[in-house]
Amino acid sequence: MEPLLSAIVGDLVSRALSMVTQRYLQSKGAEEEKLQRLRAVLLRIDATVEEAEGRHITNQAMLQQLQMLRRGMYRGYYTLDTFRYRAHRDEAYGEASTRRSLALSRFSPSSSRRTFFSVCDAPSRDLVLDAGSCSNLDKMLSSLERMIGDMQEFVMFLASYPRISRQPYSAYLFHDQVMFGRQMEKETILSFLLCREAARNGSLGVLPIIGPARVGKSTLVEHVCHDERVRRRFSLIVFFSGNDLNGGNLATLKGSGVIKHQNLASSPRGDSLAVIELAGDMDEETWRGLYTSAANHLTPGSKIILTSRSEKIASLGTAQSLVLKFLSQEAYWYFFKTAAFGSTDPEC
């Protein structure tokens, strides 16, 4: 009776292993085909984004489309690398399973039956996880293919914008020439600074920039202030901190600010840019005194940028406030690969 029972169990085990292996190979084949399609669509998006970042785009709608493309590219590469990591993990797990299966032959049939179900429990869980992962892969692939299909007009309009001098990510990320992931925000600030709107009763343009601590508000503004167009536009660029504003009088603050740029010959009108960095709010009385003082001492073409963590300063601006948020995990992963390997694909 024991030999017959052992033969039946052995046959069932063999069939179960064959079924699990067949399902696994089929899913892997379909998954690999989808990953190849994902690589192809990411190459198209990457080429479009790189071409767009090499152009001086001023249209806000096109900048928003570029931002959508960039975010989709970050998510796509993150998904692709996730599957690559899992493939390496599965390969390592397969080697360990092979060594374990060889060791099983030393045990009795009853011991083998117990061990079989405990060993096959992990692949069963992986198959469940694979089903969810494949669903996410399908959604990602469909979303990116639809996105790149809708960008024909975007690619056509790119040719109408002038090229700007730049180098690949692998070179310029290390030279403070580009702030990663903030092109749209940078162009918004540049548009505000370079626009010469007609002066009305001595009013000055004010742009509030809002965001949490360490999101990069001051870094972004300082980066924009290094732009040659901004330095030609303003003869004086001064940064003030919240601690400098107790008096609320710009005339008494000139000595306390940090001058980032000064060239009296660069602009015949002598326009100035004042950047005020706040940690929190500013009461209305202090702001009115500071704004009135600035309007009396600065030329009508001068500008003010306010940075703060508080959303309340949005009411102090003459332009729509710019809100900065932290970049996504996928964007940070893309940045890390680019900085570490000089390419979005370390295997290339």
From TrEMBL:
<keyword id="KW-0433">Leucine-rich repeat</keyword>
<dbReference type="InterPro" id="IPR027417">
    <property type="entry name" value="P-loop_NTPase"/>
</dbReference>
<keyword id="KW-0677">Repeat</keyword>
<protein>
    <recommendedName>
        <fullName>Disease resistance N-terminal domain-containing protein</fullName>
    </recommendedName>
</protein>
<keyword id="KW-0547">Nucleotide-binding</keyword>
<comment type="similarity">
    <text>Belongs to the disease resistance NB-LRR family.</text>
</comment>
<dbReference type="GO" id="GO:0000166">
    <property type="term" value="F:nucleotide binding"/>
</dbReference>
<dbReference type="Pfam" id="PF18052">
    <property type="entry name" value="Rx_N"/>
</dbReference>
<feature type="domain" description="Disease resistance N-terminal">
    <location>
        <begin position="9"/>
        <end position="97"/>
    </location>
</feature>
<dbReference type="GO" id="GO:0006952">
    <property type="term" value="P:defense response"/>
</dbReference>
<keyword id="KW-0611">Plant defense</keyword>
<dbReference type="InterPro" id="IPR041118">
    <property type="entry name" value="Rx_N"/>
</dbReference>
